[in-house]
Design a protein that fits this description.
With 264 residues, the protein is mainly α. It has ten helices and two strands. It has one domain. It has a two-stranded antiparallel sheet. Strand 1 and strand 2 form a beta hairpin. The longest helix has 29 residues. The radius of gyration is 19 Å and the shape is globular.
């Protein structure tokens, strides 16, 4: 019931901002979700004994997101700015070289994992019909996750990758892909005209598979950090990172498909 109530409250707000909100409001929504997810990531790594540089990581994550939104042509510069900044932070704050790579590496990974991948939803929104594309991604990822949950519970016997996530099954993974294709078919026929139907199905199939790797990637992080959920912000759902883990991988995949296949 907590999951249902949380969805009833959150989904209309999120969809309303995506479809009708001012561009700055959309940026605030994406940045807020990503930064909360970044904070949850650093909380998990701290539980594993690796604190990293959470404050600097959050600041760099915000600057990276701002570049995605305001000046995407400057994004390559961050390939230098972020690692150099983290190295300088270590020089001024730490002295034990035995843990230098841990602190710098975990922080760098956290920034790229949350803000680096999440920022693609800012790029997608800037495309023609981009806001509708974002909703399209949400729909097929959400329906895929829903069918994966019920399909896995009803038919799941063989585990998908037990060492990473004991609860995920092959039946759930297949149900997930079926759900993404069903959502793409319905959306493509009923209201989503920005992408031809055949491409809707292809990109949903690709993102449905890649999105599950995003889910597994977060499960690996949680298992390494010995936590069950990334946080407790969303009742019945865990943390924000638990809700956007598939999207973090699906967003870049969708953007690349659009730029290199559809936009050619």
């Amino acid at each position: 019931m907590e999951r249902v109530i949380s969805g009833i409250i959150a989904i209309p707000i999120v969809l309303g901002i995506i479809l009708y909100g001012h561009p700055l409001l959309y940026f605030i929504l994406i940045a807020s979700l990503v930064l909360v997810a970044t904070h949850e990531y650093f909380s998990m790594t701290a539980n594993a004994g690796i604190s990293g540089f959470p404050i600097e990581g959050l600041v760099l994550s915000f600057l990276l997101l701002a570049a995605y939104f305001f000046a995407p042509h400057y994004l390559p510069v961050f390939a230098v700015i972020i690692p150099v900044t983290l190295f300088l932070v270590w020089c001024f704050r730490e002295s034990n070289v035995r843990f230098a790579l841990d602190s710098i590496g975990y922080t760098l990974f956290g920034i790229l994992y949350t803000a680096g991948l999440g920022g693609y939803f800012l790029l997608i929104a800037n495309l023609e019909g981009g806001r509708e594309m974002v909703v399209f991604i949400l729909l097929f990822i959400w329906l895929g996750d829903t069918l994966a949950y019920y399909g896995g519970r009803k038919f799941g016997e063989r585990r998908l990758l037990e060492v990473v996530s004991p609860n995920k099954t092959i039946a759930g993974a297949v149900s997930n892909v079926f759900g993404t294709l069903l959502a793409a078919l319905l959306a493509g026929n009923l209201f989503f005209n920005e992408v031809p139907l055949i491409h809707c199905l292809i990109v949903a199939f690709i993102c449905g598979i890649i999105g599950q790797f995003g889910d597994l990637a977060e499960s690996l992080i949680k298992r390494n950090c010995r936590v069950k959920d990334s946080g407790t912000l969303i009742p019945g759902h865990g943390g924000v990172l638990d809700r956007i883990d598939s999207l973090l991988f699906a967003g870049p995949a969708f953007y690349c498909y659009y730029k290199f296949i559809l936009a050619v």
